[in-house]
Amino acid sequence: MSAKDKAKAKTEQAKGRLKEAAGRAAGDRRTQAEGRTERAKGDVRETAEDVRRIMKK
User: What is the pLDDT of residues 38-51, one digit of tens each?
Assistant: First the structure.
């Protein structure tokens, strides 16, 4: 996984966590769901990069 891709995945995960927490604090279910979605996208991106790295070996 390149450093750029890893940073992008980690950033997406962090933004998702923040958005989810903000939604929880405000009682806004839509914002919570958006945060969970962003975090999941970051997880998928990170996993895909790990699979690519493993397949190269």
Answer: 999 999 999 998 89
| 8/53 Cα distance (integer angstroms) | 16
Q: How far apart are CA 13 and CA 11, in angstroms?
A: 5
Distance CA 50, CA 25 (A): 33
Tokens 């390149």 found at:
2
Distance (Å, whole) CA 26 – CA 42: 23
| C-beta of residue 6 within 8 angstroms of C-beta of residue 32 | no
Indicate the pTM of the whole model.
Answer: 0.81
Residues 6+ apart with CB under 8 A from 48: none
Query: What digits encode the pLDDT tens for the residues 9-38?
Result: 999 999 999 999 999 999 999 999 999 999
